[in-house]
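Hi there,

I know you've been waiting on this one. I reran it after we fixed the sequence typo, so this is the corrected version. Both the input and the resulting structure follow.
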Amino acid sequence: MTVKTDELISMVESLPVDIKTTLVEKILDSLHPSQKEIDLLWANEAEKRVKEIKAGKAKTIPGDKVFEEIRERFHR
C-alpha cells in the first residue's frame, strides 16, 4: 500500500462507529449502485408475500428443509 492509503486507513480507523457505518454504506453503494426501481419492486413483492403468509394463503418451508432439498437435487 502507498503512504496515502495507509494514512487514509488510519484516519478511517479513528472515526466514530456511526461515521464508519455511513462511510461503509457509501463505499458499498459506489461499488454496487442501487437500482431504486428494482429495489422498490422487491420491497413490494416482499410485502405482498408477508401478507399472503399472514392470511394463510402461502405455505412457508423451513430453511433447513429447503437447503436439504437443494443438496439432494444437486449433490447426487
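Quick highlight: Helices lie at 3-13, 17-31, 36-54, 63-74.

Best,
R. S.
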